[in-house]
Amino acid sequence: MSVSDTGAVRLTDHRTQGATPPATQPGASALSDEKSPPAVRLTDVSKAYRTGRGELLALDCVSLSVGTGEFVCIIGASGCGKSTLLNLVAGLDRPTSGTVETGGRRVGLMFQEPALFPWLTAARNIELALRARGVPRQARRDLTRELLLTVRLGGFGDKRPHELSGGMRQRVAMARALALDADVLLMDEPFGALDAMTRDLLHDELERICAERTLTVLFVTHNVREAVRLGDRVVVLSSRPGKVIAEYPVPRHGPRRIDSAEVAQLAATLTDRLREEMGRHGH
User: Fold this and answer.
1) pLDDT tens track for 95-108
2) CB count, 10 Å around CB of 120?
3) Most CB within 10 Å of its CB: which of 3, 22, 113, 258?
4) Which are the contacts of 1, defined by CB distance < 8 A and separation ≥ 6?
5) Which burial class, exposed, middle or buried, applies to 36 when counting CB atoms under 10 A from its CB (0-12, 13-18, 19+)?
6) pTM for this prediction
7) Are the C-beta atoms of 30 and 24 separated by less than 8 Å?
């Protein structure tokens, strides 16, 4: 997920020539091998939107592969196309050019806001996803109980969103995403609105769930330390139009903490890279 406990920072920078050979090739999965296809593959993906003045290019020739079970964090300046990239992988939008492949895997999407129906209980919000899958009523109830236990909300299924804390509501949203039986989980700043303590606890929960279910995760965040805390690899996008300009493999040697020295070291390197990129575009 994300941190160099040896103190070494390994960087794949798409601008650098003659540097030490990277641990992974640009756009390649750190976990996949030649025999197993990636869970997610973007090849030369561009996305343009029509405006009153012509076209606005959001993404420009993005190529990225994510291996099965890999946790990839995506960071970049506001407006660089991070959310657009997730929408393309989710199938909510189509690229202007290039290809997006998930190999027929189920894809779940989780946003910064829980987006729960306020008039439904936590359990009923989760059941909606199961109902959309065509799961029979009794099986829905059993699976909902299991999912509530998975996100440590056993006993809270009858509570409505306003009766739950912000962290609890995000746990319900996570359970709803898992109810889709997703192989690939797309997360768009899901913990951005939470306090630091709650966010840290949910990092641990997400890590546990991903390990138990071998989930492949694409995680968008503006929090550099969060990216290093969670990711097996951190991908940096340029300012608009978004391009992959750097990739940081993050070796794992035991549990990580967001306040650890190793996380802070790599986070500082990433912050410097982002500041450099933003300075080049006048942010």
Assistant:
1) 999 999 998 898 98
2) 14
3) 3
4) 71, 207, 229, 230, 231, 232, 250, 252, 256
5) exposed
6) 0.81
7) yes
